[in-house]
Amino acid sequence: MSRRRTLVVGWVAALLAIALFANLGLWQSRRAVEKQAMLDAAAAVMADRTPRPLSLAGDTARARQYDWAAGIGTFDARDALLLDNQQRNGRAGVRVYRIFVPARGLPMLVDLGWLPLSGDRTLPQVPNFDGAIALRGLLVPPPSTGLALGPALAKQGDAWLMTRVDLAAIAKQTGLSVPLAPRVLRLDPALRMGYERDLELLPNTLPPDQHRGYALQWFALAAAVLATALILTFRRRRRP
């Protein structure tokens, strides 16, 4: 292979690698911006905490927004929904959800908090709540589904075990006659009901600073490939 052809092939490979690393860095940068905006919006809502009606959970125009909401309703008699693979303080467990029917508006998922799993992965028993109950908390989009592989939920004993929170699949599998509201209510930790919980918005996922760190690493790799290609090119040119 001639020197010129080797140079062309090398630069094509280098430019492809640079493009790949730069795009990965840009993606990480965009995720950092998106997550920081999400945290800032939620922080403003929680600082104010002016309650809005629970029916706002069904507003599709605000499906990706955050609102502090309060209202009265009843928990549906259907079995609890347990989101698998949820870490808390280094312990494995599940996040507990139940369907709640507010006095006005669509039925919605309520995040009741986290429960540990035993070593044999026996699912915890989750009793229901009877009668009218007043709830308050933060309306949020459901947790990101990530790669949607396999069924979203399956019946196990007296509960539904979920691999992801897929609202359409939940409504269908549990036999709801109407869709679920597009947002989930994360209960105020001050309420004396439910399980271990907080209003942390990024559990089991990367915060903005880590996305920025990964972006910097990808950009550094792109710069390193460019520098290496330039060094090798000019070294060849200096040879007699």
UniProtKB/TrEMBL annotation:
Q: What is this protein called?
A: SURF1-like protein
Name where it's found: Cell membrane; Membrane
PROSITE patterns in the cross-refs = SURF1
Among InterPro entries, the record links this protein to: Surf1/Shy1, Surf1/Surf4
- Family statement: Belongs to the SURF1 family.
Superkingdom assignment: Bacteria
Pfam families the UniProt entry points to: SURF1 (PF02104)
Keyword annotations of the record: Cell membrane, Membrane, Transmembrane, Transmembrane helix
Annotated membrane-spanning segments are: 214-234
How does the protein associate with the membrane? Multi-pass membrane protein
